[in-house]
Amino acid sequence: MIAAEAVGMIRQSVLDIVPTPADTDDDFGDRVVPFEIRQWMARLRLLEAVPFAYLAADSELLPRESIRFFYLDRAWTDALIQGAMSVGTVNSSDRAELAKIYEEARDEIDEEERRVRLAGGEDVQQGPAGTVSGFLLRSRAVSGWPGLHVRAYSVELQTRDDEIIPESDPRRLKVLRMERLAPAVLLVLFDGEPAVVHIEEPRQGVQFGVRLKTSGEGSNSFQAWVPGRDANTSEDVDGVEVPVPFRAGSPGVVDLPALVKSFVDKDSQLHVGTELDSAELALQMIRFPYRQVFGDTSVNGQAPELDTVFRPQIGYRLSELVTTFTRAVRR
Amino acid sequence: MTTPTRGQFTLHARAQAPLKAGDYVLAGRQELTGGDVAPFDGHLRVSSPRYVMPPDQILSTFPPANAEGSFEERLPQIVLKRRTLPWDRRPGAGEPDEMPWLALVVIAEGEGQLSGEVPVAECVTPGEVLVGEVDSPTSCYLAVSQTVVNAVFPTKQDVPLLAHVRQVDPSDTELSLGDDDGFLAVVMANRLPQYHRSTGPDDGDRPVRYLACLINLEQQLDVLPQPAPTHDRFVLTADVAVMNLATMAVTTDPDHYVMGGQAAFDTPVLGAIRAVEGGGASALTEGAQLDDADPQRAAAPMSEAAASAAARPLSASATSKTASAADWQAVPKQVAEVAVSASATEVGRLVRDTMKLNFRYDVERIVKDEPTYRFPVLAHWSFTATDAGSFETLMAGLNVGLLGTAPPPTPDPPAGAPPETGSTRPAAELTDTGHVGLPHQTRRGEARRAWYRGPLTPRPAGVDPDHPEVRLPLAHSSDQLRRVTPDGREDLSLAGAFEIGRLLALAQPSIVSAQLRWRKEQFGAARAKAFVQAAMKGMEKFGLSIGKSDQASGLGWLLGRGIVEAAAADPAGVLAPTRPLADGGRRIEVDGDLDEVVARGFGIDLDAVRRTTDGVGLLAALHETAAPVISDDRVPFDDEAAAKLRQGLATTVGRLADQAVGGRRDPGPVGPRPDGHLPDVHPPHGPVRDGDRATDRPEADVQTGPDRLDELISQAVQDVQRRTGERPDGGDDQ
Description:
The structure holds two protein chains of two kinds.
Chain A: H1 3-15, E1 23-25, E2 29-31, H2 35-45, H3 52-55, E3 66-72, H4 74-85, H5 92-112, E4 133-138, H6 140-144, E5 149-153, E6 172-173, E7 175-182, E8 185-190, E9 196-200, E10 207-209, E11 211-214, E12 221-229, E13 236-244, E14 246-247, H7 256-265, H8 267-270, H9 278-285, E15 286-287, E16 291-294, H10 306-309, H11 318-330
Antiparallel strand pairs in A: 1-2, 3-4, 4-8, 5-6, 5-9, 7-8, 9-16, 10-15, 11-12, 12-13
Helix pairs in contact in A: 2-5
Chain B: E1 9-12, E2 22-28, E3 40-46, E4 58-62, E5 68-69, E6 74-75, E7 77-80, E8 102-108, E9 112-114, E10 118-119, E11 138-145, H1 146-152, H2 158-161, E12 163-168, H3 173-176, E13 183-188, E14 208-216, E15 230-231, E16 234-235, H4 245-248, H5 254-258, H6 270-286, H7 295-310, H8 317-327, H9 330-341, H10 347-355, H11 363-366, E17 372-385, H12 391-396, E18 399-402, E19 436-441, E20 447-452, E21 456-457, E22 483-484, E23 490-491, H13 493-506, H14 509-537, H15 555-569, H16 571-574, H17 594-602, H18 606-616, H19 618-624, H20 639-662, H21 708-724
Helix pairs in contact in B: 6-7, 9-10, 18-19, 20-21
């Protein structure tokens, strides 16, 4: 065979290349990308090991005591994966062959994303990758309460407050990654765009207490109240706030018989009877873990204007960009 | 009662054992007809912890021991394993059964004293005696003054309201805390631990350390305060602690107040206090002095330290607050260090002792104008209330926005306060699209600014929603992903992503080797397969059929074998037509007698030989007979013969040449036929089979140029003609 024929044959072999399965996976079947590479690339796709300066280039993007929601840029993570895959190509024929199998490899890595963080006992969710969104939380709450619970839902839930639906439920969005990047910075990625996000205090046993508020007079004057509970059903009764009396002259010392009297005064709403014993008092004083809900606060269901949740510092507004671009193109 | 399900619990007001703790006499009488039975008087002791709580009875405390956090809205509590514990004893002679004998009190730093281990007789206020069972020879006590009792301690009506029983599912590990039967006793405190809030411009928020003690109220219920007037709010304009023994501690150096230098009661002895702390800490490592049996000796280190500290300049009270603010963190750290470094048998005692630091002021010596009381302490732990903010306040105070939202502007400082010095960093360049302007040094060394946006964007990006399947095309180097924005700057987001992805992959040798292995198998295998398939096309002419499943590595071997087999099957087509090993000779006509044939062939007269043989013998006769030899000059060699010779030569040579090169199938016999004629010229028939020369050979192309044999023949003709000089004719047979 002469040289021209050999070259033609090589070119043809490159053009005819068909991705062959490299291994067979339990969950997904035949895969082109081997398991080790696929797992590592899926983690890279979820921004593991990416330095924080690449995520938030300026510290002003994440000020103290703030939470910032975002979408994940698929083109950026695609570039990340392409960079990682360029390690395995040496010459131009390798690159041509990688270009042939790249689409399939990328789709497999997208699917593998969901398997990086698997809750025990849940099925692996399959399907093409969609939008990924998430938030960065920088607050003392992350360092003080390391076991935060984060849940995201795709619809406004109508269930009871204490009901927790599993992640495989379609109403709930899977958490793809939840990690503390620093003692006070938490990064969470969701598989989709959430309508409601819950951040909940981790439970530390049963706690008793009151709710403090500043009273009008003076700077360091405090009042306390307790949300009333129905003694028969132990459910909160809306709108009933029982004031907590204190011992005069003692900062923070609760006057318990007077507190009992305050509860008895609200017997008509709380059904506590004419007196409380220690168990009933304890029932009223139990405080449950706090849950912060992020969602649509508008009343009529319309999405808020972007300007209310995103205020850039300087204006390179999109409208300006459009004009400049059109001018540049026309020139 | 039904067991609660997982995650639920039931609350009960109390759990009373049928018998309270104490000594009983069991009297038994039996009446028997027909005899007397001696009465039985047995002594029974029902025991229960009185001075010391066994460590396995304490399941959990809130706030956790040595914790620092914001607890200003929570009541401290302790959870005990045995459900009847708070009701095991009767605290006073006439008290009802439901009155518990335990109470949890929370005192701040400087409000009271927690002693070392002393004999139990000294653990109650002098003058009181607790009769009955003594479960431990030594115990601690809490010494407080009347002010503190009135301000902080629960009243007699509070005590039954603060203890209850919780019933949980024993298998619910989170709620049952390690209990075995699911019933827990809970004792709450009545005080909300506050931190010190700033009261003015020079006084900031300060954390406060608290000690929670579970005390034994036996025989001292009437010491508890009477119901006081209530208030609907509490005010924190002063120190949180009701009294501050630190500021009340007296220096025992008499010179100071004898000479009128400083009044006895308002000298802050922070130095002495610190020396006590320091002395306490160093005594800790020795492990000896804290267990003093004598409260007098407990005061001795303080007086010595006070004497030495008096020589130091005493710090002004204005700085005492800030100094103690720096000190507050020291004790929790010491507790943590002791917990980690102490040996397993000593660690409980040493940790509790370390928690007592700052609660060691000798109340009875400092407070002279009001009575002090002692209560035995069964369990104690300390914690710190800070201004860290509760989870709720932190989460409610978050600034919410999409990534790229500028931070909220800092509020103006209140009038009169010095202006806050902001940071000197220039504000970030943030655009609508989430891009940030960053300084960029190009490869040529120019310093420019470029736009960069990380993977976190405020708007959905990267995928066109109308065409979600169109993604970023494959790039092979980061330079391919640089973009230029209309204002002339470069957008390096994707290029940066490519580079960092590449560097992260290179930083993991396992990934690099896995990729190279994958490249070899995925790309190299396909390439080899394509080569094999192309090479197979050339094999079919040999009749080789190699299946597609054959490995590329055996290709050479297969080829060789195929070639050999094909060649063996068709040697004439592959190599050359074979030549018979031996040339057939000319046929000899042998008819008649052999003797006559030989004689005639040689030209010998047979009769003459026979006659001579009779006389001489055959050999001699043959020897004498001369066979006729034709001499050179009698050869009838004329042109005609020469021409015939030439022709015969040419045809034979041509045939030989054809057979050697042309591949003729039917060689035919070589040599003249028996009838004397030379064989005819057989032109090679059929096309010559050969891959290269597929043309027919032209017929009768046997005449080539004259060569050496032709010359010899013409030379011979000329020689004969020259020698005889006459026309050659037949030769003489003799």
